[in-house]
UniProtKB/TrEMBL annotation:
InterPro entries: AAA+_ATPase, ABC_transporter-like_ATP-bd, ABC_transporter-like_CS, ABC_transporter_ATP-binding, DrrA, P-loop_NTPase. This is ATP-binding cassette domain-containing protein. Keywords: Antibiotic resistance, ATP-binding, Cell membrane, Membrane, Nucleotide-binding, Translocase, Transport. The lineage of its organism: Bacteria, Bacillati, Actinomycetota, Actinomycetes, Kitasatosporales. Residues 8-238 form the ABC transporter domain. Belongs to the ABC transporter superfamily. Drug exporter-1 (DrugE1) (TC 3.A.1.105) family. It is a peripheral membrane protein. One of its GO terms (molecular function) is ATP hydrolysis activity. It comes from Streptomyces alkaliphilus. One of its GO terms (cellular component) is plasma membrane.
Amino acid sequence: MDVNGSAVLAEGVRKRYGDGYALNGFDLSVPGGTVCGLLGPNGAGKTTAVRVLATLLRYEEGRAVVAGHDVAREADRVRRRIGLVGQNPAVDEELSGYRNLVMFGRLHRFGAREAGLRASRLLERFQLEEAADRPVGTYSGGMRRRLDLAVGMIPTPVVLFLDEPTVGLDPRGRNEVWRAIRELVADGTTVVLTTQYLDEADQLASRINVIDAGRVIAEDSPENLKSLVGDDRVEFVVHDARQLGVAAALVARVGDGDPVVDGDNRRVGVR
């Protein structure tokens, strides 16, 4: 913990990319044992913030402390106390779930016996025991993401960073991952998750930090932030991106404003 009681702390962090800043005066304070949601559109700086806090990127200005250690000066100590689950699966689809976890356990320098014990415990914890010996390529999307979470928990982290943990999942898969995250927090893990979806942040986060242009522009509880949003919004997801134009024309008839089209996630929204 930092002296102010934060498991994660960032003050005035700036990270340059090219001629601009991906983080431009980024501030964050996350109490231990809570879920912090970093909410914002693509390109807002969410993933860069996670990569900086997880010691994967160096920053030019500011201060960052994770699990009681300075990110710039004590990177090795930070790494020993965190877990990170990125947007893209890190597991080998040809190996079984059990073999994947053992492999990552060995990469964390656990002996063969300890790696096996941790793998078995995590498979049980994330309800993957029945699929333990199956190749990961046969898993559903929700099962793969739960296995990713298990990989992130191999070192028993104090802080777990989750970058877009449910992107691309169907509703059932999202609910499976949400349940697993809630259980981690109930056991005392501090979670920092990035998301584009207010409903996901609402379901999981104790506090939401809204990010735009590399800085936090709003921070509050989900309930208070929703009250600021005001008007209802209707959102649709199409199965084929080629249907977005037709869907936008249809939803324009039911809303007061122009449709907002998100091609990456096949979504059309309107107020």
